[in-house]
Amino acid sequence: MKVVLTIAGSDSSGGAGIQADLKTFEAFGVFGTSAITVLTAQNTMGVQGIYPVSSEFINKQIESVMSDFEVSAIKIGMLFNKEIIQSVGKIIKHLTIPIVLDPVCISKAGSKLLEDDAIEELQKIFCYATVLTPNQYEAKELFGYQYGDDKSVQNIYECPTKVIIKTHKILMDKTYKSVDMLFDGKEKSTFVSDYVDSDALHGTGCSYSSAIAANLALGKSLEESIMIAKEFIYHAITNAPHIGNGKGPINHKQGGQLCHID
Ligand code: PXL
């Protein structure tokens, strides 16, 4: 069985962060392991508290997992502050396995998940990743990207890191679509699915990047992994459990049943 590691924050409400990552790994039949970077006290309405783990202990968790298992891919989520970014950066710098870096800045409910002075530090570790998965807001913050302005994404191409920019609602053929664009330094590929008008979007970003990491671990190409991840998220949103009073979680199990790969 393939082993995947997530280096990310804990979401007490179970919809995003480490909890979403592990549920996604399970759905794809890979063995999920974790290194927790921060604890968050949160629910579907927002984040009530953030408690960072020391960088020494984050390293210890990563070393414990990697010294025992052969890890086939890594997903990186919420890193929160400069110190955590620097220490995770030092470890991933030397790795050759696929790394999916979700440059988490803000939650779907609007809470800040990255300290203001940590943005530059986060940009410094981009080149250690195989692929970055910002949403349109993160892409604006990190690359100055605006929809249609593809040149801004080319700025990071001193290295082979690819970028998927997730946009949500684009009018095509008279209906709204969810459109993701993959930039590889030369070409742009576009991935389209129907747009689901839902409030249950908490954890979609985390789960999407985890689904890509799981499929890369299974030996799929990046393009295939993106297509499978996009379909997984579509079904997970349409089968959301509708719990909580705010932006509710998605249904990883339902998505997994539809998309499971043996
Ligand atoms: O989706 C971004 C994200 C990442 N990590 C943690 C989160 C969230 C969003 O809520 O809680 C821990």
Written description of the protein model:
The chain is α/β, with parallel strands linked by helices and 262 residues long. It has a single domain (3-143, 199-258), classed as UDP-N-acetylmuramoyl-L-alanine:D-glutamate ligase, CATH 3.40.1190.20. Helices cover 35% and strands 26% of the residues. The protein contains nine helices and nine strands. The chain has helices at residues 17-27, 55-68, 82-92, 119-124, 136-143, 151-154, 204-217, 222-238, 252-259, and strands at 3-11, 31-43, 46-52, 71-76, 99-101, 131-132, 162-172, 175-183, 188-194. Strands 3-2-1-4-5-6-7-8-9 form a nine-stranded mixed beta sheet. α1 packs across α7 (204-217) and α2 packs parallel to α3 (82-92). The longest helix is centred in the C-terminal third of the chain and has 17 residues, at 222-238. The chain binds 3-hydroxy-5-(hydroxymethyl)-2-methylisonicotinaldehyde. 3-hydroxy-5-(hydroxymethyl)-2-methylisonicotinaldehyde (PXL) is lined by residues 8-9, 11, 16-17, 40, 42, 77-78, 104, 107, 113, 203, 205-206.
